[in-house]
Amino acid sequence: GLQPGPMLFKEKPEFVWGLIASMYTGNVIGVLIVLLFVPFFAAILRVPFAILFPSIVYVCAIGAFAVNNSTTDIWYMMLFGVVGYVFKKLDYPIAPMVLALVLGDMAESALRQSLIMSQGSPMIFFSSPISAVLVTASALLIVWPFISPHLHRKRAV
Fold first, then answer.
1. Rg for the chain (alpha carbons), in Å?
2. Cβ neighbours around 5 below 10 Å, total
């Protein structure tokens, strides 16, 4: 029955201040727990890699299996672990990958909604000047790595 907004402080001050007090309490308890367990966390660093790595993989596999009770999820976990390892070895930056994973679903949903509004016509993306400029700039940014070496060769000659 709560309505979020600026009036929440006037209508339900006991709830708001209780929430703020619980956040302060949680932070204090969190600091105490961290300070108590720092020696334990530091001791984990002294565990040999030959024991630590399989333990972490085992716990991750249990977590992957627990989501859907499916061994397929464990295979996905291992596949994406290998993909992550290859990306790390090839010095791929992690930020674009995280951004793609976070925004990918929203972008796909917006794309589908736009295509439904235009009865499947991709021309909706060129209907306004702003969207046309953005689509053109995106296309140029995608093509630029392939074009730029040829431009540099022509300048060098």
1. 26
2. 9
